[in-house]
Amino acid sequence: MHRNPSFSGYTNKVIDRHKWWQQHRLKIIIISLVTLIIFVIILSLLLKFVILAPKKSQTIASTTTLTTTQQPQPICQLPFGPVDRILADHRPEYVISRDLNSDNKPDLVVTNPGDNSITVFLGNGNGAFRDQTTYEVGSSPSFIAVGDFDNDNRLDLAVTNYADNSISILFGKRDETFQNKITYTVAGSPQFIIVNDFNNDEKLDLAVISFNNESISILINDGNGTFQSQIITTLNFGSKTFAAGDFNNDKKLDLVVANHDGGEIGILIGNGNGTFQNPIIYLVGIKPIYIVVDHFDHDNILDIVVTNSDGNSISLLIGNGDGTFQNQTVYMTGQYPMFITVGDFNNDKKLDLVVINEN
Question: By its UniProt entry, which InterPro entries does this protein fall under (predicted)?
Fold first, then answer.
């Protein structure tokens, strides 16, 4: 039979292509699938972030809806606006917020150790404050407490003066200002002050702690704007802060004091007349510095939390209701915890803690 050379060559090429396809078919299919997948991914990203991206106003509205309807997440956020700076006097150190003039607007009082004064800022209720008013106090004011000490329904101020062993009392006036200071002598280097009724006469008394003198001074209020001479309770250890509460449910205020250098706290049971029994000692962490008292386990019995500055921890002591406490439970914090505050920050009706770590 006669063969057509051109037809035979064509047939051989077809056969060779078929063999090549058979050999590379799997690779071609895989490469095609991968290419298709990559194309789909790119297309979906374009749709999500470019074509279908919500406008800025839509994003804000959506975020607002989530914030108000969903459970808050345990993430610290900053819902604050720009910082507004307010000029005080020389070297402001401590600030307290109260409604000093009974207008339902928070006001501020600031200590100025640099020039031995305090500054009062009356609030306008919109985040702004009136011009400052400065009052002279003692040497190196360190802490402020607020209360109605003369029963005239106006708030007064009590200021500890660290460098001259005194406290300054400034009584509130009808014109939203304060009278000149009245000075009372207390034990050496007062640092922290508490306002409460320590002798059950329904008049606000003062308790002042002295680190250097290792003591607590109680000033009983006569109710007419004067205080009796200090009643001194000796601690035999230095303490920077303390707190008051009825730890044994006898309707008399007791004290809890931090032994800063000893790694302990002392419970001083009150006698109801401004005097206290000797401290009952409990171990906590290294260098306890600040104390809060509250009901942390929902049993209506006061418990204690202490910051341990050099231990990078806090200690929780659960109260038994009879003036005694269980051994500490330790929780680690950041470096050098100083101050602590209490609140229900996630609305679960359980008290939470916020700790300031200085380092």
Answer: FG-GAP, Integrin_alpha_N
Answer whether residue 309 is part of any domain: yes
- Last residue of one domain, picked from the residues 167, 202, 234: 234
User: Do 89 and 218 reside in the same domain of the chain?
Assistant: yes
Read off the pLDDT of residues 190-234 as tens digits, 9 standing for 90 and up.
Answer: 989 999 999 999 999 999 999 888 999 999 999 888 999 999 999
Q: Which residue has the tokens 């009356």?
A: 122
Residue 252 belongs to a domain with what CATH number?
2.130.10.10
Q: What is the pLDDT of residue 17?
A: 61
Query: What's 47's DSSP letter?
Result: I
Total count of domains within the chain: 2
pLDDT tier for residue 11 given thresholds of 50, 70 and 90: low
DSSP 335: S
* Domain-located, residue 64: no
Asked if 166 and 184 count as a contact pair (C-beta separation under 8 A), the reply is yes
What is the Cα–Cα distance from 322 to 329, expressed in whole angstroms? 19
Q: Helix, strand or coil for residue 11?
A: helix
Does residue 228 share a domain with residue 254?
no
* Residues 215, 285 share a domain: no
Burial class (CB in 10 A: 0-12, 13-18, 19+), 119: buried
Range of the domain at 251: 243-358
Please report whether residue 47 resides in a domain. Answer: no
**Separation of alpha carbons 245 and 227, rounded Å:** 22
On whether the CB atoms of residues 270 and 255 are closer than 8 A, the answer is yes
Strand ranges of the sheet holding 156-161, from the earlier edge strand across to the other edge: 141-147, 156-161, 166-170, 182-185
Beta pairing, strands 215-219 & 231-234? antiparallel
31: β partners: none
pLDDT at 147 over 90: yes
pLDDT (mean) for 111-120: 94
